[in-house]
Write a sequence for this structure.
């Protein structure tokens, strides 16, 4: 298979410290055409930028994840803004959003940081990469208010929520979750997403698909996610990979090689 576009990956994660270079140097020969690196903090922005400079097929984003707002630098907006001027391969603001999953979260601070980064993305004319967990209503309210372009990543919400995101013109990204036995809700959502708004991702090193669940995820594993998605959509798997690759290129403004 070829034309694999992993639209959301975390290769600065420490789980890749022992074989990162080996993996990233071999992916293109295994059908991976592009990877988008999602940033979550200052260190991530720097590390991802370095990887994108080293590998032609890798692009990056800049943003602060809601789980990283403790100790957030006062100049976090400047850090994100500067990432775009410092590296032309920085193509999106992300990973940003809301996460109310764990006790003790600061809802108001999360909303403030999310909003400011969405406003910056609109100012720069860049798409956003949105993370939302247990925060659907607030996430949708902000997206409806500012109407950025971008993608709702790692989607496992309802079909109804997917329809609301699609009304905003955004893409929806699915991971290996759709291969899980208990993935009925995610599959129902996938059924509602038109092919032209569908992208695939690993969210590696997380979310490994069946039959590799529990192992460290990496970009070639999108093959299993694509096979499941192609069954649901009723088209050949390579056709689905071709479509989702084109969608990812359009999402991030990549013009091809």
């Amino acid at each position: 298979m070829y034309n694999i576009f992993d639209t959301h990956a975390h290769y600065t994660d420490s789980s890749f410290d022992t074989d990162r270079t080996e993996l990233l140097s071999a992916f293109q020969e295994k059908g991976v055409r592009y990877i988008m690196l999602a940033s979550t903090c200052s260190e991530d922005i720097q590390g991802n930028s370095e990887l994108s400079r080293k590998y032609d097929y890798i692009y990056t984003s800049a943003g602060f994840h809601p789980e990283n707002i403790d100790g957030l630098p006062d100049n976090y907006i400047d850090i994100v803004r500067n990432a775009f001027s410092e590296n032309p391969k920085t193509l999106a603001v992300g990973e940003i959003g809301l996460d109310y999953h764990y006790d003790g979260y600061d809802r108001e601070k999360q909303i403030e940081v999310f909003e400011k980064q969405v406003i910056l993305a609109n100012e720069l004319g860049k798409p956003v990469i949105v993370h939302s967990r247990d925060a659907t209503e607030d996430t949708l309210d902000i997206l409806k208010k500012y109407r950025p372009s971008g993608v709702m990543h790692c989607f496992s919400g309802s079909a109804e929520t997917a329809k609301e995101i699609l009304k905003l013109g955004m893409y929806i990204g699915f991971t290996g979750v759709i291969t899980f036995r208990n993935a009925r809700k995610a599959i129902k959502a996938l059924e509602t997403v038109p092919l032209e708004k569908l992208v695939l991702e690993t969210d590696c090193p997380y979310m490994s698909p069946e039959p590799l669940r529990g192992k460290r995820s990496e970009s070639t594993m999108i093959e299993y996610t694509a096979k499941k998605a192609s069954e649901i959509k009723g088209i050949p798997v390579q056709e689905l990979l071709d479509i989702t690759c084109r969608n990812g290129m359009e999402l991030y403004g990549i013009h091809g090689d």
